Amino acid sequence: MLRGMFCVSESDAAAIRTAFLEGGELAAALELRRRFVGLTSNADARRFVRTITAWQAPPEHLPDTDPDAVPGPR
């Protein structure tokens, strides 16, 4: 089992999502294991794949917030 944390780039995540859409969870798990050779457990890889495929990209631009603004109708 891979100990600690690992970082998945957006390009890795996109390839894993593509494998998931084209071949299912097992195909995506194999793609994840191909990219992260320290992952030796299919069960862990499948769990990580479910997390990765559920990710959504953050918004391009977050709205500016005024810390002094009072919430409610104007």
What does this structure look like?
The chain has 74 residues and is mostly helical. It is elongated. The protein has three helices and no strands. The model has no long low-confidence stretch (mean pLDDT 85).
**How many E strands?**
0
The N- and C-terminal alpha carbons lie at a distance of 55 Å
Largest sheet: none
Radius of gyration, CA atoms, in whole angstroms: 18 Å
Order of helices and strands: HHH
The percent range for helix content is: 40-55%
What's the average pLDDT? 85
Shape: elongated
Query: How many H/I helical runs?
Result: 3
The SS-based structural class is mainly alpha
In percent terms, what proportion of residues is strand? under 5%
Task: Note the topology.
Layout: H1 10-23, H2 25-35, H3 42-54
Helix pairs in contact: 1-2, 2-3
In short:
The protein is mainly α. 51% of the residues lie in helices and 0% in strands.
Any descriptors?
single chain; 74 residues; mainly alpha
